[in-house]
Specification:
The protein has 216 residues and is an alpha/beta fold. Helix content is 34%, strand content 17%. The chain has one domain: 3-Layer(aba) Sandwich (Rossmann fold), CATH 3.40.50.410. The protein has a 5-stranded mixed beta sheet with strand order 3-2-1-4-5, with helices on both faces. The N terminus is likely disordered.
């Protein structure tokens, strides 16, 4: 299966990742994708500069596998809760602007259930869209806090790259050709399933569009 096949109906176009120094625990293919695109995207970002609109769409892709329940001393909270501190700060900062054009979506992977638009395709099991893209309000925050807990499910399923594909698909459908600042924020410990087939194709395609990828 190639990466293109994961995004049916989008003319084989995938949004690029913003390269950050990758954590050592992530799979080598993630390192490769982020490293290869770094010089290209930094140059593109400088060139576009102030051309980007104020509208912004961010999709958080959050690993909810059972390994995220681990508590590491001296912290008194799980790895997931520790990482979510950053996510909640970002979400509340977006909400505080009160702008309807600052929208958020949330995808969870390695979940116990499956709930996404590509669920019938192979490789998209145990991935859930926890919040479709839209303006976030306090009701959304309360619902999300109940959903963002480590799953008890063990075994395969919940592929990380597939979850990113779903996030990309959500942004493409929501933003269409409009000028949005487009972000995907990935939270993972890198211990789940990562189907890296078609990695070079991903690298080629991620240079065609403008999504920023932050990896925690």
């Amino acid at each position: 299966m190639t990466f293109c096949s994961r995004l049916p109906g989008h003319n084989q176009r995938v949004l690029p990742f913003l390269p950050f120094p990758p954590p050592r625990f992530l799979p080598n293919t993630v390192h490769y994708i982020i490293t290869v695109t770094s010089k290209y995207y930094e140059k593109k970002q400088r060139k576009e500069g102030d051309k980007m609109a104020d509208k912004q769409a961010t999709v958080y892709v959050i690993d909810l596998g059972p390994t995220l329940s681990r508590v590491r001393p001296p912290r008194g909270e799980s790895d997931l809760d520790y990482a979510l501190t950053y996510i909640w700060d970002k979400i509340t900062a977006t909400m505080s602007t009160g702008r309807k054009t600052d929208v958020i979506g949330v995808v969870g992977f390695r979940t116990e259930n499956t709930d996404n638009t590509m669920a019938t395709a192979d490789g998209y099991e145990n991935i859930c869209v926890l919040a479709p893209i839209g303006q976030f309000l306090m009701d959304h925050v309360r619902d999300l806090k109940r959903a963002l807990v480590p799953s008890r499910r063990k075994g395969k399923g919940g592929d990380g790259f597939s979850a990113i594909c779903i996030a990309v698909d959500m942004i493409m459908k929501y933003c269409r050709k409009l000028k949005y600042i487009r972000n995907v924020v990935l939270v993972t410990d890198g211990r789940g399933e990562w189907d890296d087939e078609g990695c070079e194709e991903i690298v080629r395609q991620i240079q065609e569009e403008g999504i920023n990828l932050t990896v925690l």
